[in-house]
Request: fold
Amino acid sequence: MALIVAKFGGTSVASPERIKMVAKRLIGMKQAGDRPVAVVSAMGKSTDELVGLSHALSKNPPAREMDRLLSTGEHVSMSLLAMAIEAMGYRAMSFSGRQAGIRTTGEHSKAKITLVHADRIQNAVDAGIVPVIAGFQGIDDNGDITTLGRGGSDTTAVAVAYGIGADVCEIFSDVDGVYTADPRVAPRARKLDAINYDDMLELSSAGAGVLQSRAVEFARKYNVIIHARSAFSDSPGTLIKEADSQMEQAVITGIAHDTSEVKVTIRDAQDRPGIAARVFSALAGNMVNVDMIIQNISEDGHTDISFTCPEADLGRARGTVESLLDTIGARGYAVDENIAKVSVVGTGMKSSPGVAARTFTALSDNNVNILLISTSPIRLSVVVSADQVELAVRCLHTAFGLDSDSVFEEKMLSAQELADKKSKGR
Ligand code: ADP
Ligand code: ASP
Ligand code: MG
Reply:
């Protein structure tokens, strides 16, 4: 009689046929004696379509209205799934974020869940009903609708699992688990049976979109076990949990890539104390989320400073840098949008020297030029030209001995969905 939170992403609820498949899957869980609670994303690409609609009307839509708009995508899928379950003779009831008791902070578009009042969900489960919860949203202290950042339904699922004390949080998507790299970029990637929270958090933060990093952070904090698995098959996926002796002890767990950042270079800024502080304080003040930073060797008392930030913050970054040029005595600035970050991740690297040497050798053997480097105790990231991202991921995957003998096969994705996935990876 396991209590299971089952989250289905956009691809899994993209059409009435897919929604029927999800309904059957939930009913299958009930028939096996389990008690499922569903969490759904918006259908297919509908969140992107809503973003497109808003941009047709405003360059800078108010954050409150944007969240109100985007939350409707999940309202559509939750109601349709509840109807599908009812049409198959079982009881179901949909709940918006507000109705499911999901309270958040007030930062629109990146709110954090603070509390889950799960009584209504619990009561529904006790009454034999399948609750279907809209992912990606909650309400703040003013009663306004907030959203949790793109991919945020994963976080809803983990928070609900914690709130109702579920035995497991199953995240169903179009891949059958967490791989050693995005299998669409590195077809020789290997599926992991299990991965610890720290490795998964680092992979997600470095761009592995299979799970939202906030979801992993939440799961680690409250010890919620996540099972990432395929919406299209019954085969077991990957368990994300506390490290244990059964887990593989590799130096490198995986390679992640991220094409969503841009690089800004400030040319010939004065090289004296206080300049970097000024630049990065101003960027922070304008809500630019700076990731990597490099400062060149000083010549004639001037130096170049480069940093990366999300493409979404570029407008604010430009405005900030332009307004500072005179004050910091800089000659100008340049923006490179054609970059990608590739990260080698593994808690095992803490006790294993030589990761940097092997990374740089593999990249140089393949003529991949490194533009920026940053490290943490369990990650080494390089910025390369976006045209070389696939080559960089694949050659590092091979260099760290991660290649599988078999090649990843697409399951159940339509030609259009495959094309969309490819364009998402640039
Ligand atoms: P959903 O819409 O169901 O939330 P996502 O598209 O967000 O699904 O996440 C699944 C996708 O994550 C896969 O299609 C895959 O291309 C991508 N992905 C990136 N890195 C990895 C990885 N290391 N392992 C598995 N999938 C990955
Ligand atoms: N629908 C939202 C998005 O596209 C949330 C999610 O899918 O998890 O980002
Ligand atoms: Mg997702």
Summary: The radius of gyration is 23 Å. The chain has twelve helices and 20 strands. The chain has a mean pLDDT of 95.
